[in-house]
Amino acid sequence: MAEQELQFGLEDVQLLSDDSVYKGFFEIRSLTLKHRLYAGGWSQAIRRELFVRHDAVGVLLYDPALDAVALVQQFRVGAYGHQGKQSADESPWLLELVAGLIDKDESPALVAQRESQEEAGAVIQELVPIHQYFSSPGGSCEFFHLYCGRCDLSAVGGIHGLAEEAEDIRVQVIPVAEAWQKLQRGEINNAHSIIALQWLMMNKNQLWQQLQEK
Asked: H or E stretch including 153?
């Protein structure tokens, strides 16, 4: 007989304490908890630091007529903190998707539209959901909404971003084949962009056919 699958839920966690230990641009909370074990019973009390982030949205801007995508390049402090651990010449300016946090009363789709205009000057004509997932659930509560946005990229490019948010964003329109080569060479090395480009390569023909039928 096959082993019965265990389904654990929120009721299988006991939260013993929850304290804010830092609050700046982001927040860190210290949680002490217990949870049920697969072998039965409960774990010992476990302390974990939780990096608290709003849910986020990313959108791969795609122009089927040009067969090109628009990616943005900007400074990332996480990549700066990793300097020298992989190679001496790695840069903290990453090539990635348009993205933003859901920090207002907006739907993920509205955030995708707004961030595309703010970060790239692009207007999304059709928004296609790719996936929803936890970005790094071992230590962060961020939940990511990933889209592909059909755009006219013929006049997209240049420097964008909001000065009040210290954004300095360079937009590049890149043929899909070239973007794929950059990914394979490791020049695109952030998870959301990798997932979105892999999805596009797998679904591009079907996506183009669906868009033509609308």
From this structure: none
